[in-house]
Design goal:
With about 425 residues, this protein is an alpha/beta fold. Helix content is about 40%, strand content about 15%. Strand 12 and strand 13 form a beta hairpin.
């Protein structure tokens, strides 16, 4: 049955629909694959066969009828409250909007996936249930904070999983696990979601292809993401975000773009160098008050206390001014180009034992350099995705695609085009 897990989301859904796949067998294969591969990765933190079987028995006919899905540990389920990478439930069991949309599409929630402690890190190393590991190499970080969704999809435990993204938390794990991950345009419902960062965070699909992400994304967003032509696009390459990258990552990303056939042009974003500071300020000011009472790792506690003591009263207004500037810049640029593109991460996933990234400027903490590249999409609220762009020493990295407000479908069009180009060549 394990071969069923190697099928994509659309293939699984089509097989259940036409009768060639027994959905009960598909669920059993999913749970068997988790049992087989999860011990090395720690990507799935809970399964619940009885509840999943009950959900399957009651599943309506829909676009995901009978398809098992993973869900990040930040959403209410009727039988389990979210834990946010900590030891205790922080909301009671209930029906979050993500649960309702998956249920109404006929999907079967088959597991809860690893979340970095309180949804606040890009490595996936700090959580009550231990670190999450990359599907490409368990000795390396699986990413965060949606690292469990990324790793479980990368390891074919699920064909699709749900993540959330407040500073790259879908896109970074997607890059670290060699899959496609989309952060939707800001503004989806948030009921049943347990954490802060509410002016930054958005949910999205994590799958092994852009086509599969379109299907799952339509369910999450509750609207059609109609396919279009992604082959003839004007693409801006912001100079600031192409600086200080691992040379092999830069070459791989540029090579993929050179093969795209797109109209590529270098652009400048005023205030781009301020996006890291503004993102960290807002993540701290919005996230810390909503953090739960569980004792966090000592280093996290110490860092947060020191950082909060240094924040002036004007920190929030300053961060909001930077956000307004970047939104104006995005509006200006999207009058000239269809996409903004740069690497998702500056280097491949770092070792679990030493989460530092070696760059031309020297070694840097992964959290710092990852948020530097990803915060822009959260500050502006624009849709953004990571698509696999290559490997260095067998470790994957990604290319980030960002489009104008509400243009989620254009990103998926671009992703499908790049996947076709890469497969052809």
């Amino acid at each position: 049955m394990s071969h069923l897990q190697d099928l994509g989301l659309r293939q699984q859904a089509a097989g259940v629909s036409d009768g060639s796949i027994d959905p009960a067998e598909l669920l059993r294969a999913t749970l068997e694959r988790i049992e087989e591969r999860n011990p090395a990765l720690n990507a799935v933190v809970a399964t619940f066969p009885e509840e999943s079987e009950r959900m399957l028995a009651q599943a309506p006919e829909g676009p995901l009828h009978g398809v098992p899905i993973g869900i990040k540990d930040m959403f209410q389920l009727p039988w389990r409250g979210p834990r946010d990478g900590t030891e205790n439930e922080h909301l009671p069991p209930g029906e979050s909007y993500i649960y309702r949309r998956l249920r109404d599409a006929g999907a079967v929630i088959a597991g809860v996936t690893h979340t970095h402690w309180n949804g606040g890190g890009s490595t996936g190393l700090q959580a009550a249930y231990g670190p999450v590991h990359s599907a490409a190499d368990p000795g390396h970080c699986g990413g965060g904070s949606s690292g469990g969704s990324g790793s479980s999809v990368g390891a074919s435990m699920f064909a699709g999983a749900i993540g959330t993204d407040g500073g790259g938390s879908i896109r970074i794990p997607a890059a670290y696990n060699g899959i496609f991950g989309l952060k939707h345009t800001f503004g989806l419902p948030i009921d049943g979601y347990t954490h802060g960062y509410l002016s930054l965070v958005e949910a999205g699909p994590m799958c092994r292809s852009a086509s599969d992400a379109r299907l799952l994304g339509e369910v999450i967003a509750g609207r059609s993401l109609e396919a279009g032509d992604g082959s003839k696009l004007r693409v801006g390459l912001p100079r600031f975000f192409w600086e200080d990258l691992d040379p092999e990552v830069e070459r791989g990303c540029r090579s993929l773009l050179d093969r795209s056939g797109w109209d590529l042009r270098a652009v400048d974003i005023e205030g781009a160098e301020l996006s890291l500071m503004a993102t960290v300020l807002l993540l701290t000011l919005e996230g810390v008050p909503s953090m739960h009472g569980d004792e966090p790792p000592d280093l996290v506690t110490e860092a947060l206390v020191k950082y909060l003591m240094l924040l002036p009263a004007r920190a929030m207004p300053r961060a909001d001014r930077i956000r307004s500037l970047l939104r104006r810049e995005a509006a200006r640029l999207f009058g000239e180009v269809d996409l903004l593109v740069w690497p998702t991460v500056p280097g491949p996933p770092p070792p679990v034992e030493n989460p530092m990234v070696e760059l031309p400027s020297g070694p840097h903490p992964a959290d710092e350099v990852n948020v530097r590249l990803n915060g822009f999409g959260n500050l502006t609220g624009l849709p953004a995705a990571s698509i696999p762009a290559g490997e260095k020493d067998g470790l994957p990295y990604g290319l980030m695609l960002q489009a104008a407000w509400g243009e989620d479908a254009r990103i998926l069009d671009a992703g499908e085009h790049l996947e076709a180009v890469d497969a052809y060549l």
